[in-house]
Amino acid sequence: MVGVYEAQDDRTGYVIPIETVLAKFNQKKEITFSQSTNTAAILDAGNKQFRKEEYIAAIEYYDNVIKDPNFVFAWGNKGKSLSNMGKHEEAIKCYDRALEIDPSYAFAWNGKGLSLDYLGKHEEAIKCYDRALEINPNYVEVWSGKGFALDKIKMHGEAIKCFYKALEINQNDADAWSNRGFALANLSDYTEALKCYDKAIEINPNHNRAWNCKGLALSRLNRDEEAIKCFDKAIEINPNHNRAWNNKGNSLSRLERVEEAIKCFNKSIEINPVYIFPWINKSFNLIKLNKNIEAIESANNALQLNSGQSSIHARVWIAKASAFQKLFRYDEAVDSYNKAIDLHPNNAYTWYNRACCNVNRGEIEKGLADLKKAIEIDKKLSNLAKRAPCFLGLSYDERFNALLYT
Questions:
Q1: Cβ–Cβ under 8 Å, residues 346 and 372
Q2: Are 317 and 295 in contact (CB under 8 A)?
Q3: Phi and psi dihedrals of 16, rounded to 5?
Q4: Distances 265 to 210, 242, 247 between C-alpha atoms, Å
């Protein structure tokens, strides 16, 4: 037997009989037994490297098999290896080559869909998943992948249907339970999401994604002490789970355990320096400790990264602006708030804080205009402005009072 792949996230792939593998050769000359055995051994050696997550070594073996350009499984496995290394554009080329040879190769359609999804091409990914499901309607991983892609384009209801379908096929698929929980959490149904995560963990107690997501759901329900225990379990299973470290930091921060939180953000950054969120969260927590210069440095590091979402980069500029504001460097704070507003103009607190800075630097007209915009977005800010120190000097200003009391 020759195993095709075992995915990095605990999903296992197919085991292909050697007779089926050899049948995929499209050669004019007859294949001798010695040739087929050698090919099987090379492919099997590559698969062993894949299972150990030694993807570069695996690719070398697959490239040897690909010397026969029609060997479809090697192209598929090479694509999966590249995908797991984050080289999704190269992976797609391999999947496309596999599909040229065999358009009915569902594994390649699924792999291509996953890589497209990672590249943010969710609609194209869904088309690939649909092709895979036409070939094999009972392909659990494809239903899950399609569900994730739908979830990312805010089609949460349709995503849940896909995860239900995966569970119809296999009630004991821990991934499908975890994925369904993820979609429910995106609908803010955290109580039902927790039930799904618990089911995933019951099936696979070492499902670190389910533990991490359970922690996130608990944190959304303001159950941060319990959430931290879940993040700790995810980290115990995989000490390099950078997202779990970041999420644990957020829960610690909400519990005002700020110095512990920063240690978690630093650990997340150490594991994956290009993951933007711990840089942002570290910046805000350094501000809590009045370490504003360090906060600005952390924000600057975040600005070097590409989040792919303007609202996320807006948060970076808000962190930087907040640090400047704490340092009474109002001109620089306003410049940073300007950037944040350009990226995300509907954040009332950004307008409010820029109003404070403008008033503090003597730009009263601009400050009042900003305050007016903030209150238009969120009327509750009028109450905050009534007792804000930065506006005390305007307590007899008719324009200011008109904003607050009419």
A1: no
A2: no
A3: -100, 125
A4: 21, 9, 9
Residues 60 and 7: their CA atoms lie apart, in Å, by: 18
Q: Where are the beta strands (DSSP E) in 72-197?
A: none
* CATH numeric code, 1-102: 1.25.40.10
Instruction: Give me 217's structure tokens.
Output: 């759901």
- 160, 144 contact by CB (below 8 A): no
Encoded amino acid at 201, one letter: I
User: Tens-digit pLDDT profile for the chain (406 aa)?
Assistant: 222 222 333 333 333 333 333 333 333 222 222 334 466 676 677 777 767 777 777 767 666 655 555 577 778 888 888 888 888 999 999 999 999 988 999 999 999 999 999 898 999 999 999 999 999 999 999 998 999 899 889 898 899 899 889 989 999 989 889 988 988 998 899 999 999 999 999 999 999 999 999 999 999 999 999 999 999 999 999 999 999 999 999 999 999 999 999 999 999 999 999 899 999 999 999 999 999 999 999 999 999 987 667 889 999 999 999 999 999 999 999 999 999 999 999 999 999 999 999 999 999 999 999 999 999 999 999 999 999 999 999 989 999 999 998 7
Q: Two tokens at 231?
A: 């993040």
Lookup result for tokens 């359609």: 109
Cβ-based neighbours of 292, under 8 Å, separated by 6 or more: 286, 323, 324, 326, 327
* Distances, alpha carbon 251 to alpha carbons 42, 230, 288, in Å: 48, 11, 15
φ, ψ of residue 139 in degrees (nearest 5)? -85, 100
Distance of alpha carbon 406 from alpha carbon 399, whole angstroms: 10
Say how far apart CA 137 and CA 141 lie, in whole Å: 11
Domain span(s) for CATH 1.25.40.10 in the chain: 1-102
Checking 285-294 for CB contacts under 8 A at 24+ apart, the result is 285/249, 285/253, 285/258, 285/261, 286/262, 286/323, 287/319, 287/322, 287/323, 287/326, 288/253, 288/258, 289/258, 289/259, 289/262, 290/326, 292/323, 292/324, 292/326, 292/327, 293/323, 293/327
- CA–CA gap between residue 252 and residue 239 (Å, rounded): 18
Burial class from Cβ neighbours inside 10 Å (0-12, 13-18, 19+) for residue 98 reads: buried
The residue length of the chain stands at 406
Dihedral sign for Cα 237, 242, 247, 252, please. positive
pTM above 0.85, yes or no: no
